[in-house]
# Entry
Amino acid sequence: MADYTAILPLIVLAAFGLLAPAVRILGKSDKATAIWALAGVLISGFFVADFFLSYPPGSSVGFEGVVELNYFSALFMLLFLSVAAYVIIASLRYVDKERHTGEYYALILLATTGMMIVASALDLITLFVGIELTSLSSYALVAFRKTSKRGSEAATKYFIIGALSSAIALFGISLLYGVTVQFPEVLVGSNPLTFENIGAAVSAAMGTPAEPIVFLAAVMLIAGFGFKIALVPFHMWAPDVYEGAPTTITAMLAAGSKKMGIIALFKVFLIGLIALKTDWELLIAVLAILTMTVGNIIAVSQTSLKRMLAYSSIAQAGYILIALPIAAVSDPAVAAYGLAGGFFHMITHAFMKGGAFLIVAGLSKVAVGENVADYKGLARRAPWIAFAMLIMLFSLAGIPPLAGFWSKYVLFSGAIDAWQLNDQNNWMFWLAIAGILNSALSLYYYARVVKNMYVEKGPQDRVRVPTAMAVAIGICFVAVIGIGLYPQPFIQACIDAAHAFLGI
# Structure
């Protein structure tokens, strides 16, 4: 009898998503539809959490060789469900009185299902299907407000660039398929595109005429996934899309779908293309440094808070990418710790950046603008919201003892550990230095927002964010404070996830 443990969270979430429009029609209530969507998230999360409680670290449950639930996939399933939960709660008031709210919540749940598929995928085709499910849902969500010219423009750009990136990635996948079928003697099972089979075939292809094809496939996949996660030089779409999309959806894009793209990159390169690491690890390191530097430098000059946070998200992707070459080192303990640093920063970033965007969304709902100058005097107009924004921004900058400090500490110390292994890893020292210097640079533009809120004079009238949005902001606020005060359980969970990911 088949074991459905691995796919039950996916089935539940997809089913709730598909039924959400019907709930809206039958119930004729946006609130009931939001509660339905939130119930789907909570029930799906219950099944994922049950895996943690029922199985020890190192355990895994697969389904037909397509997806696998282990400590890595379960951790990121819970992260994606958490993002979906606070976005749904915030949307209860953000999209009230809008048309098609049933479809809105359905698309959020289906996008989250796609992210969870990517986290649990065992082969490239399943991974690609998950990415496309999230991407297609996200295109529609960005264009949700059809009367908004800025939103329609953002959705058009997002769709065109997203389709292009998918085509490039699919071309890379087809090249890998062509290579794997040339070496049937090293393949296990009937699916040549599992990550393990790709890794075995790539190892066999080294030193043969197929090696240049593998290298070309790696370049295509870096470009394809690079567009998805807004790596430099594939980043120019992100600020326009983040600014034009409904701000709750911007939070989901920054906190959820970007992490999905990074997971896809990690799976392909650390499992499928690990034999080619001498060719890609330095390239990835250069892209990481360029991404964090360009994102932070351009963010300094932004006057729109959403664009500033968008460029900050680009820089944060550069920080996370540091973990990729670290996880390819020969020492398993160092590799796992470095990868855990990337995972930990993905988790903290989901709450830091998600919380910041939700604050922007909540304030825009009460007629506070989205420019940095509009936040002058906010500490007197909305003290709690201003303090929450201060916490989010300082955590993004890595100020102790907040969550962002600990995730950056683990991430950068992983680069130092890799540097100390042997002389061949000397260049990894510069990954840590680049990360530290860029974190210092980011503090400048974050502090500018704080200065406007607490020092500059502005309007005196009090503003009150809607309760539902305040609850969503509070979830992120508690997570950032809680992880900062008690980081060790989260670090250990990320180390367990890294061991499950690397199979050690």
Summary: The beta strands are 60-63, 67-70. The mean pLDDT is 89. The chain has one domain: 8-502.
